[in-house]
UniProtKB/TrEMBL annotation:
Keywords: Cell membrane, Membrane, Transmembrane, Transmembrane helix, Transport. It comes from Luteococcus sanguinis. PROSITE patterns: ABC_TM1 (PS50928). Residues 109-310 form the ABC transmembrane type-1 domain. The chain crosses the membrane at residues 49-71, 113-134, 146-168, 188-209, 291-310. This is Carbohydrate ABC transporter permease.
Length: 325
């Protein structure tokens, strides 16, 4: 058996552009060794410096009233009257205890909770139901219903003062709900007014959010035999959690700080919300501004707690859909 001679194969490596490959490898290694932070660093151009200076100035101007209120609330009136309000020193926490006692903050906080918590819960629940119908079903009155809710928000509350007062004066309610037998001077009447005025805005926001939800999840739910109530309760509401958190934060702040309808519909001082406590801190001939500043910070504390508790969902709810496309 004869041994076959080896076949001489052409040298393929000789025809490769070794020089170019080597240069590409060196360029890649140099690129990988460069600090990624240096690439992301932007030069401080004149426009960028002016932008940061403008934003910093606006931030200081925005925070100055709050910081000044904190500084004033922690100093006595005698010290500021002697050294001036822009002085630094003489710190004390006595203004907070005096404001709490003089303004009856404990009782007024309970009144605000009785008004705010049910009003926010009822508003969001009804708005979710209406928005679900508007977003999921196409019928000829769909747009008209949404327009009616929006038109209600465009009416100024001052224009409805007399009609609402007359209606509440004639509506009879059980004695256990109102001592006068009408909706006047009741927390329930104030809750109804807040729900009526806030329902349109919440419906508009939630309907737009629900329209952006993929229809495939509802089609899959129908195939699985999920009822309409199940689609609303188990699918829609969990997906609307960011928008609900954002609306809950806004509605709590608005209803909690609302004082116009309280002065119109409430007639006894023991039923007024917390916003009326500041009037108790102002004297007839003299007002201690440091005491009022301490009372203002006490009143603002619940809304700040709610915001920081829902901050993550609040920001995600406001920016939802900003990066689509």
């Amino acid at each position: 058996m004869s041994q076959e001679s080896p076949v001489n194969l052409p040298d393929l490596t000789a025809s490769r552009p070794v020089g170019r490959v080597h240069e590409a490898q060196e360029a890649a290694s140099q690129a990988s060794s460069v600090d990624p932070g240096a690439e992301r660093h932007r030069p401080w151009t004149k426009g960028r410096v002016l932008t940061h200076a403008f934003l910093g100035t606006m931030a200081v101007l925005w925070l100055f009233p709050l910081l000044y209120a904190v500084l004033a609330s922690m100093r006595s009136y005698d010290y500021t009257s002697t050294h001036g309000y822009l002085s630094f020193g003489g710190f004390t926490f006595s203004n907070y205890t005096k404001a709490w006692e003089a303004g009856a903050f404990g009782h007024k906080f309970v009144n605000s909770a009785i008004i705010t918590i049910p009003a926010v819960a009822i508003t969001l629940f009804l708005a979710c139901m209406v928005a679900f119908v508007i977003a999921r079903f196409n019928w000829k009155f769909n747009t008209i219903m949404l327009a009616l809710f929006l038109v209600g928000n465009l009416l100024p509350p001052q224009a409805l003062l007399i009609p609402v007062f007359k209606i509440f004066q004639k509506i009879e309610v059980p004695f256990w709900l109102s001592e006068s037998g009408t909706l006047l001077n009741t927390h329930f009447g104030l809750i109804l007014v807040n729900v009526a005025f806030q329902l349109g805005f919440c419906t508009f926001v939630l309907s737009n959010f629900m329209k952006a939800l993929p229809k495939e999840i509802y089609e899959s739910a129908q195939v699985d035999g999920t009822s309409l109530w199940g689609q609303f309760w188990r699918l829609t509401l969990p997906l609307c959690r960011p928008s609900l958190a954002a609306l809950a934060t806004l509605e709590t702040t608005w209803i909690y700080n609302e004082f116009f309808w309280a002065t119109v519909l409430l007639q006894s001082g023991d039923k007024f919300p917390i916003t009326s406590s500041l009037t108790n801190l102002a004297g007839t001939f003299f007002t201690d501004n440091n005491l009022v500043a301490a009372g203002s910070l006490i009143i603002a504390l619940p809304t700040l707690i709610i915001y920081f508790a829902l901050q993550k969902h609040f920001v995600s709810g406001l920016t939802m859909g900003a990066t689509k496309g």
